[in-house]
Amino acid sequence: MTSTFEKTSVNNPASPERFFEGRQHEMFARLRAEDPVHYTPESEFGPYWSITKWDDIMSVDIDHQRFSSAQGVTLTNLADLERQNEARAIAGMPPRPIATAGFISMDEPLHKVHRKAVTPAAAPANVAKLAPIVRERAQKMLDELPEGETFNWVDLVSRRLTAMTLATLFDFPKENCDDLTFRSDVFNAVPAEYGIRDWAHWVEIITDCSEQFEALWDARKKNPSGNDLLSLLAQNPKTRDMTLEEFQGTLVLLIIGGNDTTRNTISGGVHAVLNHPDQLLKLKADPALIPSMVSETIRWQTPLAYMMRIANEDVQIRDKKIKAGDQVAMWYISGNRDGDQIERPDEYIIDRPRARNHMSFGFGIHRCLGNRVAEMQLTIIWEEILKRFSSIEIVSDPVRTNSSFINGYDKLEVQVRR
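Given the sequence above, the corresponding structure tokens read:
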């Protein structure tokens, strides 16, 4: 399994530094051309495979018999996990498992039971009821933005809108909705990021989040009459008695899935449109292009760069033999730039034919549950942006998230004119 990549830094595609510096696409272009099923023998995540072509990614994603999610869907930094568990031991807590117990980290038949319990929250009728609430909040948020002053779009728009929507889906206290965003960031962060002092502080934040939601969970079980995510889980006889570990895993999944993806696509859309002025002119001339633009932005941004699976048995993909037990990263961010599937894939084209033909939501049994909620929020925020602003100007280079899983932005400084 030798490769020309082993002599270069490209041999570890999941290195967060490359994403932080915005250099990931040149790497994946090279992998697709030279080594589309690529093996990394050593990394901070252990050995793993990278699948970078559309057809190969889809073949793994839909094959839940030979590729398991039960050991987690992300590559785990083993040194960070050890440090977290040292901090947990000091706090008298058991070690953190590599995989959360949320339904995204379950195989059939258990996965279907847990996913089905929360599906009504993302059903079309519920999304339609949620839309006016999201629009009212988006309008107020945009109206309050300072004109002619530099501010961080991520903080004042992207984070706030998605946090408020997520709080509604959880029926979480509105005054504490910013906590959801902060905790979502912390789940995937390391000390020195987001104000985390050390691993003991990280454990403290995560524990506080779990305890707060456990209190809400207990209340919903006593009175499971609502239509929020926690009430739906409490109403279902097959999930109301889930273990604490399963509840915490589901909680992490819903917070990250409901926050990071949409938030980073909102920020990524502003960055993409303003760096493609011809597309901005199209959008202003024809706001009916917004749904197409939203889909193109989801492809262009690919807010979750990959998902990981474990091979249940030896599997041949192209000329490579993946062994049972191997980690396999399906790089959606690469498949979304595969020229064999998407015409002119490196161009941002808001009126692209078949714009919804992207893999950012995944395929198969684990396809994103909240994709309609995400599209609704993105559509509304852009409708309201076009009504209000004559211009938005980026005033400095964005600061990207230091992660190879969350493909996003921590800072995007802009000025707006009404």
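The chain has one domain: 4-417. Try to locate this feature in the token string yourself.
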